[in-house]
């Protein structure tokens, strides 16, 4: 990667530094202990792990995650299949002063049954 | 990926320099460089340069221009991840985290594997607690850089926070397998091991946790944590015999840790109270200087044994003169039998100390040496505190006066005397005693703060501020300094004082200040996301995240929120008139005498207003000076902090939508303080006024879940039913809503009418005044013609069975006329009756009496001042300090 990568790299470094400076000046405000804090914030060099040891693990976690994702996607699909009416969502939002996302989620979870959704929110 | 709109070499070099300058905070140079690039006619519109120019301007504090340029740059180069990233950084510095997340996501669309953007994104996601998103980002980072430690840790943590313990554990396990060489005393490695152990414990795999600890014991630096965890795990795993020696050694290490004793006893599996007491006896022998083994048996022991251990404990404390002795045993008073024993013992000490200087007659007979003379004072103080706790004001005062006569210079005595008056309902007399105590040791911060608090209870905000000013930074107004220091006990008490005085705007201002402190504390966690990961203090980090999640559970927040909600409700019920229309009263139709009165009132008001505006102007000047003195410091510390709007009392109390404002305060309570019934009762009041029936229902259900017998729940139900019927008359409900309401009403009251329900309630709870009060309130609410009956219901209750707080509640309801309608006569006679019952309570005393008392005091003060003036003439060695005290006294 060329220039663009570098750009972002620098910005981040700057940001970190800004954070640290901020911390330092905070400490000044609280008088003492500045030296201590500087000592603890010094940056330790990151040790690298040799790639040979971990490739199988990486693969394993990747698989695991893919499985999770499949499950989640399936669940979401299931939820998306549920037919919900716009007016029902609006009713829930209006009666219970909740956000649209929340109203829709509960309604889908209750398979589109608006009475059940209202019940679910008030008895929670 | 190359930039979508690349610059030629010369400009490219300038652009890199520009970045360097921004990084080094050389904003002015950066600005010049950006101008150089933009001055090339070919690149005046160059998006990335424009965006960077904006970011540089932001560094110079020119926020508006910054937004202008960054947006312009973005518009010119929508496909540049640099522009999006810059826009995200700008939003982030403005604390608009949601917006910043969107920007980063857009940046990632054009550059999906950019490490820096991903890291930045993960920080914002954890700050906003988008845990699913955080997991995704962490996974992405892990796959990109599996060779870095931080990738593994963050990846594991993302699963831990989502409570997927298995996955978190296996990531960490895999990670430690790959660690080949471990140095001795590697703190970070040690913390990582303990973190993994915490995950095992949280996932309830206790045996595995024990094995893990045993295996890695040698590598863990925090030996104490190992032992504590080990002992705890053995108890949970029913291997008590292994836990016993662990807790024995922990107690040896620190004999003042209550938890160690509890766990030791759990490990010994002793439950019989005298057996537990004898265990403590052994520890008393072993650690004669430790307090815990002496105090803890008092909680367990019963009957005669309790008398024996308490006798020992109290004698020791009184002989030594330990000031907080009473506070230390106060919790025992919850058990009436124990309170009785304590009272009996203390009375016996007092009697014998007065007679012979011994704690008991047996001691005297046995010829034991007499106790120190101070023992009598401490015993009298103890008794005063005891009777104060029992709300027996007369006897409490009797003993505290004995003590004060004996040793007039002991500050604790004066504080206690003040406290007795406070509990008896006279905050003014209370503060007088505290002020006296404070004057005896002006260098003591504790008594200083206490005094300020008592002044606030007596609605003396100005005086409280002056007292506090003795300890705040010089040259700054005390109020501002206390706010800056987040001194929340002061601010909540202040809010309540203003609320009592009906200065709604000022009260709200204090509440909002407290709210801002909490927002700031949440904000402050941002720094820790990078810091803790790097330093591997993961246990503490997870602890911090969990604390921040429930931060507004804190009692300070609760107090401030409750006050704010109450004030907003009040402002909704009785909105303030706009400032100009207040004075327009129909003058012409008044009789001359009334007119005269009105005129003099107006004159007085005008005078007062002038005075106030002069004060306000003064304060304004002060504030400006303060601002000026603060500004350079401010820029230095936090250039990024967005300026919050100044809180102005007048604006706050004239808000357009008080209920919405109340809901802002309410939401965190509903979320975090579910277990407190006040939350749901307050919520009901808000939604009742908004006429949201389903939400009222929600509040009632939640309140009933906490305490179904709470008196206020009843009147909530009645009012709910009443609103239901009147709303149904106006227009039919949506059929779905109707269904829910029908079902719920049936559950709540069955087929009864509200009247029936209320009658039953009154009959059932006729022994509890608070229930009767709610019943009476509902009686009037349902049928205005039953006013007399309703009032009689509460006022005829046996006054001797009433507690002060209950009497005050009823009296204020009658006086203010907002519960039972106008009822001045009843209020006056009730006040009289209450005055006889609670003679010290200020609220029941009549005004003339109070004024006479006040004048007498003023006169006494004047006399004292004159005397002191004369003294100064006689002895001029210390004129300033005497003058100062005289001035303070006036």
UniProtKB/TrEMBL annotation, chain A:
The organism encoding this protein is Drosophila yakuba (Fruit fly)
Organism classification: Eukaryota, Metazoa, Ecdysozoa, Arthropoda, Hexapoda
Primary gene name: Dyak\GE10068
What ranges does the record list as Acidic residues composition bias? Answer: 1-18
Q: What residue spans carry the Basic and acidic residues bias annotation?
A: 19-38
Descriptive protein name: Nascent polypeptide-associated complex subunit alpha-like UBA domain-containing protein
Coiled-coil positions: none
Q: Which PANTHER family match?
A: HUNTINGTIN-INTERACTING PROTEIN K (PTHR31184:SF2), HUNTINGTIN-INTERACTING PROTEIN K FAMILY MEMBER (PTHR31184)
User: Which parts of this chain are annotated as the region Disordered?
Assistant: 1-38
Superkingdom of the source species: Eukaryota
Q: Which InterPro entries match?
A: Huntingtin-int_K (IPR052617), HYPK_UBA (IPR038922), NAC-like_UBA (IPR044034)
Q: Which GO terms describe its biological process?
A: negative regulation of apoptotic process; protein stabilization
- Enumerate the transmembrane spans: none
> What are the Nascent polypeptide-associated complex subunit alpha-like UBA domain coordinates in residue numbering?
82-122
UniProtKB/TrEMBL annotation, chain B:
Q: Which residues form a coiled coil?
A: 840-870
Locations of Basic residues compositional bias?
Answer: 598-607
Record's superkingdom? Eukaryota
InterPro entries referenced in this protein's UniProt entry, alphabetically: NatA_aux_su (IPR021183), TPR-like_helical_dom_sf (IPR011990), TPR_rpt (IPR019734)
One cellular-component annotation, GO: NatA complex
- Residue numbers spanned by region Disordered: 597-642
Could you list this entry's UniProt keywords, alphabetically sorted: Coiled coil, Repeat, TPR repeat
Identify the stretches annotated as TPR repeats. Answer: 81-114, 224-257
- The protein depicted here goes by the name N-alpha-acetyltransferase 16, NatA auxiliary subunit
Q: Which organism is it from?
A: Drosophila erecta
